[in-house]
From TrEMBL:
Gene responsible for this protein: ccsA
UniProt subcellular location: Membrane
PANTHER family documented for this protein: CYTOCHROME B_B6 PROTEIN-RELATED, HEME EXPORTER PROTEIN C
A Pfam family matched in the record: Cytochrom_C_asm
Major localisation: membrane
Domain Cytochrome c assembly protein: 58-234
UniProtKB keywords: Cytochrome c-type biogenesis, Membrane, Transmembrane, Transmembrane helix
Statement: the UniProt record of this protein carries the keyword Cytoplasm: no
UniProt-recorded name of the protein: Cytochrome c biogenesis protein CcsA
Top-level division of the source organism's lineage: Bacteria
Organism expressing this protein natively: Geobacter benzoatilyticus
InterPro entries in alphabetical order: Cyt_c_assembly, Cyt_c_biogenesis_CcsA/CcmC
Membrane topology note: Multi-pass membrane protein
Chain ranges passing through the membrane: 53-73, 80-100, 120-139, 151-172, 212-233
Length: 239
């Protein structure tokens, strides 16, 4: 089945030249996740391999509305950079084995699946926001900064939903909404970061280039929350 993910990576890269290739990359990645889900009997959301593949597909899915935005319709830069980003995380999935172990009882709940899926949809939109911020810095098109704000705002909404569903899952799993693990702490840092970023952007305090850079920095905070904490710190959360 991994050949589907490999095809997805290749199509994302060719998507720089033709949007249908990008869409086909999304379809191939989604087909891989569906095949994994059928094999496992659940959503593939546990372990680095499955979450990286899910993240890659999430980037492609969340990018679709932006691909057909009038601001980006005639530009190949957004498609190319976003496709390379999705391809990168898809390739990273091959660095890790695809586990087929059954879920422990603590994870057998819809709240867990909702928590993880919403988190990765948010991560994907934060990544897209970073791409749009970089394109704004490169070309100075003010409308790109507006799109960056929209991406971050929708991502923030998804992320807030993820935190709520994660708290409910934690209550059923451990009898508490909060455990002060490194993952939960950095999740809060990421949420507070985008809270302030969106507030400053909404207030229109000026400093467009600073705001664009701050949006890119938010993506770095997100990456550390997702990968850095999982690799470098011990936590009841893994990936």
């Amino acid at each position: 089945m991994k050949w589907l993910l490999l095809i997805s990576v290749g199509l994302y890269l060719f998507g720089a030249f033709r949007r249908p290739f990008f869409a086909a990359g999304l379809v191939a990645g989604a087909a891989y996740l569906a095949a994994r889900g059928i094999e496992l009997g659940r959503l593939p959301l546990v372990g680095p391999h499955d979450t990286l593949a899910f993240f890659s597909v999430s980037i492609g899915l969340m990018a679709l509305p932006f691909l057909f935005s009038p601001v980006l319709l005639k530009s190949s830069s957004f498609t190319w950079v976003t496709g390379c980003t999705a391809a990168l995380f898809g390739l990273m999935a091959f660095l890790f084995p695809a586990f087929a172990m059954p879920l422990p009882p603590v994870l057998r709940t819809l709240w867990f699946e909702l928590h993880v899926a919403l988190a990765f949809f948010a991560y994907a939109l934060f990544a897209i926001g970073a791409v749009l911020g970089a394109l704004f810095l490169a070309g100075g098109e003010r409308r790109l900064l507006d799109l960056q704000y929209r991406a971050a705002l929708v991502g923030y909404t998804f992320f807030s939903g993820s935190m709520v569903s994660g708290g409910i899952w934690g209550y059923f799993a451990w009898g508490t909404y909060w455990l002060w693990t490194p993952k939960e702490l950095w999740t809060s840092i990421l949420w507070v970061y985008y809270t302030f970023w969106l507030h400053l952007r909404l207030k229109g305090t000026g400093g467009d280039r600073a705001l664009a850079w701050a949006g890119i920095a938010g993506f770095a905070v997100m990456l550390f929350t997702y990968l850095g904490v999982s690799i470098l710190m011990k936590s009841s959360h893994s990936f």
